[in-house]
Amino acid sequence: MIEMKDVTKKYPNGVLAVNGISVNIKQGEFVYVVGPSGAGKSTFIKMMYREEKPSSGSITINGIDLTKLKEKKVPYLRRNIGVVFQDFKLLPRLSVFENIAYALEVIEENPRNIKKRVLEVLDLVRLKHKARFLPDELSGGEQQRVSIARSIVNSPGLMIADEPTGNLDPETSWEIMNIFEEINNRGTTIIMATHNREIVNKIKKRVIAIESGKIARDEVRGEYGYEI
Question: Is 136 exposed, middle or buried (0-12, 13-18, 19+ CB in 10 A)?
Fold first, then answer.
């Protein structure tokens, strides 16, 4: 599903964030991206949804070469990629239902289909009873569950999560991971950058460790491997 070949990213200030990375990720995989702060993890995943462009090398997702993709085509690429952030990025004046529905409204989905699909994903993240609540009426964990629901409402084949449990307490983090596992079991590829050692070591998945912009480890059922 994802192929990177000799990818390098150097920022204008001279920082070499990613240095010659090559990796393949298959459809349906669940991959943790780990490593020290500043190692290049965020740049690595941002290039997958064209938030950043590599300085050299190629990135292909589902046969689409992102390095050659025209800017006007980027929104269409992102329709097939769900992104979950550490800070939720919900629209504060919209209800839970409206936040999720917005992702379908912008692609002009049929209103009847929007309602049906939003209720389906709210059921998946166990928040149907709070559909009319505003984000600031929810706990941090509930806001993250809304963010997850929004990211999968258009049934993307790929979900990218950047420190999704970073602002959550341990119990809530496990609830979020249970939802991720359920989404992955339904066939969605998940790539998750994380510093959560306990989760990585307990829920065994593929681990890609990045250090100084390079892949230091790539293990099928790996461990976190760093002191926190």
Answer: exposed
Q: Which residues, 6+ apart, have CB-to-CB distance to 133 below 8 Å?
A: 95, 96
Measured CA to CA, the distance from residue 142 to residue 151 in angstroms comes to: 14
**1-80+156-227 is classed in which CATH architecture?**
3-Layer(aba) Sandwich (3.40)
- One digit per residue, the tens of pLDDT, for the chain of length 228 reads 899 999 999 999 999 999 999 999 999 999 999 999 889 999 999 999 999 999 999 999 988 899 989 999 988 888 889 988 878 889 999 999 999 999 888 888 898 899 999 999 999 999 999 999 999 999 998 998 999 999 989 888 999 999 888 888 899 899 999 999 999 999 999 999 999 999 999 999 999 999 999 999 999 999 998 765
Task: Read off the pTM.
Answer: 0.89
- Closest CA relative to residue 30, chosen from 224, 204, 152: 204
Domain ranges of the chain: 1-80+156-227, 90-152
**What pairs with residue 64 in β-bridges?**
61
Output the CA–CA distances (angstroms, integers) from residue 61 to 27, 29, 112, 158, 168, in the order listed.
10, 14, 31, 9, 31
Per DSSP, what are the bridge partners of residue 217?
209
> Beta 64-65 vs 16-25: how paired, if at all?
unpaired
Q: In whole angstroms, what separates CA 27 from the centre of its chain? A: 15
